[in-house]
Fold this sequence. Notes:
6-stranded mixed beta sheet
Amino acid sequence: MPIQDLDDRVNILLVDDQPAKLLSYEVILSELGENLIKANSAREALELLLKTEVAVILLDVSMPELDGFELATMIREHPRFQKTAIIFVSAIQITELDSLRGYEAGAVDYVPVPVVPEVLRAKVRIFAELYRKTRQLERLNAELEQRVAERTAALEASAARLQESERRRNLAMAAGRMGSWEWDFATDRYIWDEGQYRIFGVDPASFVPTEAAVDALIHPEDLDAVREAARNAAATGEYYDREFRICRPDGSLRWCLASGAATLDERGRPIRLSGILHDITERKRAEQALQLLNEELEHRIEERTREREMALAQLFEAQKIDTIGQLTGGVAHDFNNLLMAVLGSLELLKKRIPAEDARSHRLLDNAVQGAERGAALTQRLLAFARRQELKPETVDVAKLIGGMEDLLARALGPAVMLGKHLPKDLAPVRVDANQLELAILNLAVNARDAMPLGGSLSILGREERIPSEDATAPRELPPGPYVRLEVVDTGLGMDEATLARATEPFFTTKGPGKGTGLGLSMVQGLAVQSGGAMTVRSEPGKGTTIALWLPQAERAEAKAEAPELGAAAALDGTPDAGPELTVLVVDDDMLVAAGTAAMLEDLGHRVIEANSGSHALDALRRHEHAIDVVITDHAMPGMTGLELVQRIRASYPSLPVILASGYAEIEDAAEYGALPRLAKPFRQAELAAAIAVASGRAAGRDGNIVPFQLPA
């Protein structure tokens, strides 16, 4: 016999006070595949019944406490077990009177002892299957009742919807928005209700709805289509549905929807066309308004899409420029270190070549000039990357440009006429004077190259105050007072494509070897770093106008003279070595450290080298009282120059320290107080001046030395 599925098995309760008999019943009935539950007493059997749903109870007649008859009576008194099958098992000879008593107590059968396994299994199987089928039938009845209830609810809901639909239709007809009509093909008569007359705006007492009269009310542009649809429905019996316009006698125009169906005779031929007419004027007006709104919405979406695309393009461009800026800044920093070693070595080498060796001196001068041009290029790269250490000061723009007029004239050449329009009382600006001079010179050279046949270059300046909202000013500028400096040329100009890329790094319209493509990028970087902005306007054949917006400064602090172009120009003659000092040089680049040490030794100083901050601290501990000055790079692995300064000041507060770096984004410099900085690449004279400043022998010249005057 196959084992029952786990979900379909029933429970069979075996009750006997003798464990051996319970075990024998379990062995016999195990083949049925049902759940067998055993109880050793009447009390245990009652407890199990209250906890478990039981299909068949196999009950011993003779048991202590309660016999089988009494237990069966108690089971039958419970409402849950009134139909549960109870089979008595007894080893005692049962009389007919006992049998009647057992049946009265609720037994359904008897099994005598010794038990015949096949008989017991057969009887139990019958009642288990009966219980299982009864349970399945109850489930089916419950499901059927549920389905009937759901179907009844659906029918009731459908009937309610139908009634609601009929009610709404009657309300619509009563409101006069719909009318019914009929066209009899045999008599060619039209039959209208009151709603039909009301829609057409005619008087039922005077208007006769003939074909000609009705056609006169239909819009001329729709008449042919309405006629064709009606004739087709009359000929074929097909459903009639048409939208058209009517012209009322009062001159108003209404939209209508006519729907109808043909009535057929016994031969299947259409004899009349009946239907309804719906005034859909309001719906058409709503559709037209919705169409206008959709068109307006589409237009707005197109505008927003264009704005979003422009914003994404600007974001992408900004990210690209920032990435290139980080790259160029790092390259420029490393290049400064190389130039440091080259310029220092060339300068020392020049001292060792005899004065009469003119050719060697000329070659050295060429090498120095090339290295200085490389240094100028790194300044442009750092300005573009916005990592150049600017030295902002209050500058009189009119005097600065006046001081470089001869330089501009030589740069422009005789074919270009230079004009200036700068008010004498033009407000000063806060900017790095050297970099502003370099930017103006750069713009002038670009303008000259854009005028191969000659022309004019004008430099204009005026004061402007940007209010909170000014569409003409650059969007990135905050409100406030500015000086607007314009460089205007009459050159070839730029088309839109070239103008869009004009400020991109390394983009140039000049031939190979004639431009780096960093000029405008450097100028823009200077303007932004100074708190201003740069704009470019140009048209082909109409020249170019480049405007620099620079924030105004206090007039009392304006610098009166134009600064010298180039950092090294501030130091003239042979450097003053001063007394012999012991200098600790800290730099992770061995070439730079060696070059700096060579220049110091040439000045007569003693040098101790360290390639990291930790090595420098070790050297200080070994030579605690011998070191007079420390020169340290900033960007070093493990410990930066500023961190080294902090450690030195904590242990050796009186020891002078000079920070030497190509650039440094010093975010926490305020913690270190006044700290002189020597910008790379520096010359021997600048190094000597820095030593003098740090050791207290400054003679009023700072050259390439930038002190940080910051609160500790």
